[in-house]
Each structure stands twice: as C-alpha cells, then as structure tokens.
Amino acid sequence: MLKTIGILVWACALLLAPASFAHQTSDSYLALSLTNSRLEGRWAISLRDLDHVLQIDENHDGEVSDSELSRSRSKVESYAINHLKIGIDAKSVRIAPSGFEIEEHSDAYYATLLFDVLIADVGSDISVTYSLFNDTDPQHRGLFRLDLANRTETAIFSPAHPTQRFSISESRTTVSFLSFVREGIWHIWTGFDHILFLIALLLPSVLHREGGRWAPASSGRAALLNIVKVVTAFTVAHSITLTLATLGWVRLPSRFVEAVIAASVVIAALNNLKTLFAERTWMIAFSFGLIHGFGFASALTDLHLNSSSLATALFGFNAGVEIGQLAIVFVFVPIAFPLRKTNFYQEVALRYCSLLIAVLAGAWFFERALDRRILPF
C-alpha cells in the first residue's frame, strides 16, 4: 500500500511540477506555393520566440517595437533561413528573401518572412528540412502548408521529424493525417492547464458524496460510470468548439480564452474542496470543455487550410487529443481506484492536490487576465 501511495504522490507532483509552462505553445507557420514553375514562401514566426533567441527587444520593455524589429530584420532573416533547407529532387536550392511583414495571429504578433525559392525546374519531389529553435525549444513546432496546382499538402515539423518529402504528383493524405494525430496527442500532453483540468475532474470520480463528505464509490461500475460521464462531456464539448473555431465560424480573443481556461481549472479544483455542483462534475466538464476547445483550435486556425486539407487536419488533431486524454485516464484510474477507500486518498490526495491545482491555476488566471507575470518561473 505504501508503494502505491508513493506512486500517487509522485504522479501528482509530476503533473504539477512542469505546469508552470501552462499553455505557452511555440509554433511557426511556413507555407510554400508552387505556381507556373515558381516556388514562393511565406514564414510567420512569433516575435516572442525570436526575441528569446535573438534579443531583438533592445530596451527590455517586454514588447518588440516596429523600429526594433526593423533594425533586426537582417538578423531575423539570416537566422530563419539558416534553419530551413529546401531541395528539389534531392538537390539543395537557394532561398532568397523578398519581403518582410508583421501580422497578428490568434495568440501573438509574428514576423513574416517572404522569400523566393530559386529553381530551374519543378522536378518530381520537394524536400523540406526545418530546424528552427530545435536547439533551444524542443516543444517548438513548425506547421507547414504546400500549395500545389491540384491540391494542398500539410506537415508538422519537430525536432523528432525535421525533414519531410512531398511528391509533386502523389498525395500523402495518410501521412498528413497521422502527423496531426501525433500533434493532437502532443498538444494535450504539453497543455498542462488542460491536463490539470482533467485531473481535477477525475480526482473525485472514484468517490461520491455521503453526508457532506467524500466516500468511496460503491463499486467499480459506479466509478466507471462517473469517469465515462466526465470524459464524454469534455470530449463532446471541446470537439464542438474546436470544429467551430477551426472552421472560422466562431472566434474569441485568445487572451480571454486562455484566462477562462485557467478559471475553469480553479473551479474544477475548488469543487473538490467545497461542493459547488453537487456530483454533477460532468456539467463542469461540458461547460468549460467548450472553452478548452477554443484553446485546442489555436494550433490549426492560423494555418489557413482549404476545406479538404482542413478536414484531414481537424479530424486527425481531434483524434490525437482524444488519444492523449484517454492515456491520462488510463494512467490515473488504476492508481486512484484501489486507493479510493483510504483516508489518504479522500483527505490528503483529493484535498491537497486540488488545493495545489487551484492555487496554481489562480496564478495563471491573473497572469492571463492582466497580461502580467506573477509566477517567478
């Protein structure tokens, strides 16, 4: 029993320790377009990420001004192009900068590099090797779109998958689909606010209220029913808004979404300490799952895919999110269920894990709502 208790404490600490990263994702958006034997590129890179590596915020006021970025343009272009290699039929080609813009995405401002890929002929395949921020941020992802005459191809670059190849004549829909499944899994496993929301909902799932106190669920069937309700409600809710947001039918400000996500974690955790929604945890899961869907959608909305490519990306990404979510459930439940009858679980694990989650998420909420850093990490 002591060993099992130790595992639960370790699991809770493991979940909380890296959670200071909250929902800070790092993505860039790279697009190539092949038109009439001319290959052109557009690459949007977050100013926040560029500043972390190149220190372009000269006065250290927390914002990159137009003048600061203008002075750093050549440095930014050189850094980016040195981390991108394009080949035609396995032969490297030269990349020539052709423009520089600033654009606002759903989460931040981005520097957008325009460039020409100097090719003699189209060839039969295009290879892209992407290594931006690989040495400084292993969580960074490069979301890629290749527009051809008859179709659009997509890919996701990461340190584990830095090179992708595309045939001019043959589609790679299955490869693209699997890459978005993988990205969906990664997105929820690195979105620690989503994880803590799920954990806060799962903590009481093996218990029930009895005389104003938590008591162990009477049977495995009762506990499983609670878990199914919570997971299903969360899945249905975030799938709805993930789809609506990715299709562009509903838009909410990123800062508002991230603040409400943090608030949802606080409420879910406080519900374990003082019952706010009786035993209707699934209602919390559904209500705030709608907001979490907007958070998930941030990884897809700025890629600007056409309808067919968007369907593949959306379905694959959502499938990945569900796989990542179920993996967390399958790890948590076998540990929590046998411990549900112990005073340790009912008083210590439930109470103090929920309290820690609430405090941490509360700090995230104020950081996001006020756009100010509170936590020292």
Kindly describe this structure.
- Strands 5-6-2-1-8-9 form a six-stranded mixed sheet, sandwiched between helices. A four-stranded antiparallel sheet has the order 4-3-7-10, with no helix packed on it.
- The model is unreliable at 1-11 and 13-23 (pLDDT under 50).
- It folds into two domains: 2-23 and 191-370; 27-172, no CATH class.
- The chain is elongated, with a radius of gyration of 23 Å.
- It has helices at 2-16, 47-54, 66-71, 73-81, 173-190, 192-202, 220-246, 254-273, 281-301, 307-339, 343-370; strands at residues 27-35, 38-46, 84-88, 91-92, 94-104, 109-118, 125-130, 141-147, 152-157, 163-167, 207-210, 213-216.
- The protein has 377 residues and is of the alpha+beta class.
Shape: elongated
| Order of secondary-structure elements | HEEHHHEEEEEEEEHHEEHHHHH
The overall average pLDDT, rounded, is 85
Class by SSE composition: alpha+beta
Features of the shown structure:
377 residues, alpha+beta, 2 domains, six-stranded mixed β-sheet, four-stranded antiparallel β-sheet, 11 helices, 12 strands, 52% helix, elongated, disordered N terminus
Q: Strands, helices and their partners?
A:
Layout: H1 2-16, E1 27-35, E2 38-46, H2 47-54, H3 66-71, H4 73-81, E3 84-88, E4 91-92, E5 94-104, E6 109-118, E7 125-130, E8 141-147, E9 152-157, E10 163-167, H5 173-190, H6 192-202, E11 207-210, E12 213-216, H7 220-246, H8 254-273, H9 281-301, H10 307-339, H11 343-370
Parallel strand pairs: 1-8
Antiparallel strand pairs: 1-2, 2-6, 3-4, 3-7, 5-6, 7-10, 8-9, 11-12
Helix pairs in contact: 1-10, 1-11, 5-10, 6-8, 6-10, 7-9, 7-10, 8-9, 8-11
